[in-house]
Amino acid sequence: MKTILIADDNQDNLYLLQSMLASSGHTVIMATNGAEALEKARKSLPDLIISDILMPVMDGFSLCNAWEKDPILQDIPFVFYTGTYTDPKDEQFALSLGADRFIVKPKEPEVFLKIIADLLAGPRREKGEKRHRLKMPEKVLMREYSESLFRKLENKMLELEAANRLLKEKELALGNSIRNWQITFDAMNDAISLIGLDGKILRCNTAMAKLVGRQIKDVIGQNCYTLMHGASKPIPECPIVRIKSSKQREFLELFKNDRWLHVTVDPLLDDESSLIGGIHIIRDITERKRVEEELRRHREHLEELVGERTAELEDMNKELESFSYSVSHDLRAPLRHLTGFAGLLTEKLSENLDDEGKRYLQVISDSAMKMSRLIDDILLFSRMGRAEMRKISIDMNALVKEALQELETEVQGRDIRWAIGELPRVEGDPTMLRLVMINLIANALKFTRKKKQGIIEINAAAKKKEVVLTVKDNGVGFDMKYGDKLFSIFQRLHREEDFEGTGIGLAHVKRLVHRHGGRVWADGKVNEGASFSFSLPKS
Questions:
Q1: How confident is the model at residue 47 (pLDDT cuts 50, 70, 90)?
Q2: Nearest alpha-carbon partner for 6 in 25, 188, 193, 27
Q3: What's the burial of 407, exposed, middle or buried (CB within 10 Å: 0-12/13-18/19+)?
Q4: For residue range 100-116, what is the model confidence (pLDDT) as tens digits?
Q5: What CA–CA distance (Å, rounded) separates 29 from 41?
Q6: pTM recorded for the entire structure
Q7: Most-buried pick from 139, 211, 251, 355 (CB within 10 A)?
Q8: Alpha-carbon distance 235 to 226, whole Å?
């Protein structure tokens, strides 16, 4: 649905138009003069404006002229809706100012809403395209505007004098303000009534009469609390009672005749801002309540499923921990035997073994050691994936220094040029992020080993919602078409005899970064180096 701006200094007209348009699903913004309408339109652009002509501060003709000259507003359809400017010359003048339509009050609700719907559904002009304006010199426009304005002002003064005499009696004023509402009310699905401060219904539509099971003539003059609640006095939460002190819209939801009803009461004020009654609107929200109840049941069922799934996962984690322990214990014993007996054979039979036999024993020993490291890496991978996170503020400069100290033996005897930028503080688990940095730096050290001088850069970049840290090297690099395999467990892009490793390190990095809500990626080119990056959300 669309947003429609209404400019009219008459509160009754504003409420009437608001009710008509809101019943069609539109959002309505109201202004009491042209200047206020311009201000509201520039703050929040509407899809269409409906303006009266005779208004204080800035009249409708001046508003239309300013609207047409405003490059932001000029493409938005402009509709005049007037009951005082009814002369054909007035319509011609309004269209010459750039208005899209000129509608004379009163207009049947169905016809009026059809005109508005057609305008909203019609093709919009291209940016900067001018409305068709009658070719008339500016001086002629101003003269006709002045003549028309003075003529209508004189007529309006006569009307106001007559209205002021009628306003001396509030009942007559109230009756005068709603005399043309009945047709509009009956076209609406919501039950609408006009209620006095004593709770008596002064006017109502067909929907209201149908709701209480009576004819309109039998509803008028009855107390709303008697018809709605069967009570002899207002119920404590009655909106009509509440608006006497608040003088603002009040709400109430109630259950009646197996239906949920949403009651809205808007205060009706006179020219001195004194409360003289209320506009009572009742909307059937049974379907909405049914949907809300269904959603609530689904939510409860989902929470129950989540609870069951959580319990299952906890049991699975316990089983996994038990399995990990068993794997660690059961596999390490035969590996120790392999390593030990291979050593004993080497020591006892070394003099009787040829070079080929010694190589076989060395392969057995090296394979057992590799298997032991692989078991350690798998257990660490599994354990860190389940470990509880402890998020704190971390100085990444200090954390990188710790990682370098731990890798000091890997650097000895190497020509490494370090380029470490200023790194930010981040929110995360220090143990997990230390492992991330150790793995990435160790990876860079390993793949620059064949370079005469290894170059390793560590830097960071602050984005809008995240911090990105990157470890870059000038090592052997990799082919980007295999880049999606880098962070998968046991995936290797280089031969084991060229570069050692278990194929778990980068998978470990990915899991730990994902647990922080971040992401990982890599860029590289064969023989030109690689860069590995990860992001951490800003706190």
A1: very high
A2: 27
A3: middle
A4: 999 998 889 899 999 99
A5: 9
A6: 0.38
A7: 211
A8: 10
Q: Which residues have C-beta within 8 Å of that of residue 247, sequence separation ≥ 6?
A: 267, 269, 273, 275
**Closest C-alpha among 41, 74, 76 to residue 58:** 41
pLDDT tens-place string over residues 359-416: 777 777 766 666 666 666 556 555 555 567 788 999 999 999 999 998 888 888 889 9
Q: What mean pLDDT is predicted for residues 23-46?
A: 93
pLDDT score, position 247: 83
Measure the CA–CA gap between 48 and 120, rounded to whole angstroms: 7
Give backbone dihedrals phi and psi of 384, rounded to 5 degrees, phi first. Answer: -70, -25
* Residue showing tokens 């109840």: 293
The answer to whether 79 and 49 have CB atoms below 8 angstroms apart is yes
Decide: residue 185, CB within 10 A, 0-12 exposed, 13-18 middle, 19+ buried. Answer: buried
Cα–Cα dist 27/158, whole Å: 35
- pLDDT, tens only, 287-312: 888 888 888 898 888 888 888 887 77
Rounded-to-integer distance, Cα 535 and Cα 310, Å? 28
Q: Where are the beta strands (DSSP E) in 250-307?
A: 250-256, 259-269, 275-284
- Which residues does 13 contact at the CB level (< 8 Å), separation at least 6? 52
What is the Cα–Cα distance from 247 to 266, expressed in whole angstroms? 8
**Residues ≥6 apart with Cβ < 8 Å to 232:** 226
Q: Would you state the structure tokens that stand for residue 186, as one six-digit string?
A: 């009956």
End-to-end C-alpha distance for the chain, whole angstroms: 37
Residue 49, strand partner residues: 5, 78
pLDDT in tens, 455-478: 999 999 998 899 999 999 998 888
Task: Return the bridge partners of 513, or none.
Answer: none
Dihedral through CA 392, CA 398, CA 402, CA 407, nearest 10? 120
> Three-state DSSP class for 199?
coil
8 A C-beta contact, residue 397 and residue 481:
no
Q: What is each CA distance from 216 to 188, 233, 259, 281, in whole angstroms?
A: 15, 22, 21, 16
Rg of the chain in Å (alpha carbons) = 40
Would the pLDDT of 48 be above 60? yes
Of 61-65, 84-88, 507-511, give the lowest mean pLDDT range: 84-88
Task: Provide the residue count of the chain.
Answer: 539
- Mean pLDDT lowest for which of 310-324, 426-440, 471-485? 310-324
Asked if omega into 77 is within 30° of 0 (cis), the reply is no
Cβ partners under 8 Å of residue 523, min gap 6 = 480, 483, 530, 531, 533
Q: What one-character-per-residue DSSP string does 126-139 give?
A: PTTPPPP-----HH
Regarding predicted confidence, which is higher, 87 or 530?
A: 530
